[in-house]
Amino acid sequence: MRRCVSRFKKSNSPARRGAASYSSRMNDSTPLSALISASLSLHVERVRQRVHTLVDPLSHEQLWQRPYGYGNSTGHLILHLTGNLNYYIGARVMETGYIRDRPREFADTTQRAKDDVLGAFDSAVDLLLAALAGQADADWGRPIEATGAEDVKDRLSMFVRCVAHLDHHTGQMIYICKELSASR
Fold first, then answer.
1. Which domains does the chain possess?
2. Nearest C-alpha neighbor of 64 from the set 102, 101, 116, 99
C-alpha cells in the first residue's frame, strides 16, 4: 500500500493536479454549491483519465471484443456512458435536444474507431463538467424528469446518479481489460 500511495503523491496526472488545485480553492467558507460542483468535477476527471488509461492500450478488435458471454465490450460500455451523459445531463439538464437510442448503445455493430468513441465520450464528459460548473445554489434542487430515472426528482440526485453510473461501468471495464490482457 505504501508503494501505491507514494507513487500517487509523485504523480503529475491530471487527476493529481486537479486535486492540488481543488485543495487550494476549497476552504471552510467555500459555498456548498461550489464544493459540490468541484468535488464531483474532480471525481469525473479521475474517471475520465481511468477510462483513457484502460482503453489506450487496446487494439480496435479488443475495444469491441466481448470476453464474457454475458457482458459487453469496452467499446459498447463507452457508447453507453456517452449516451447516458448526453441524455440525462445534455437533454434533461442542459436542454441540448439529444435523443437517446439506448438499445443501440449495446448493439451497435459499426465498431467505430477508438479515437472517435473516446472523442464522443470526452465531449459528453465535458458537457457534464460544464453543467456542474453552471449550477447555482438554487439549481441543485430544481426538479427533473427523465425516462429511466423516474425515482430521481432533482438535479443534484441526477448528477450523483450519473457519476455513480460512470464509476459502475468503469469498474466493469477494468475487469474486461484485465481479461483481455491476460488472453494476449
1. 2-182 (1.20.120.450)
2. 116
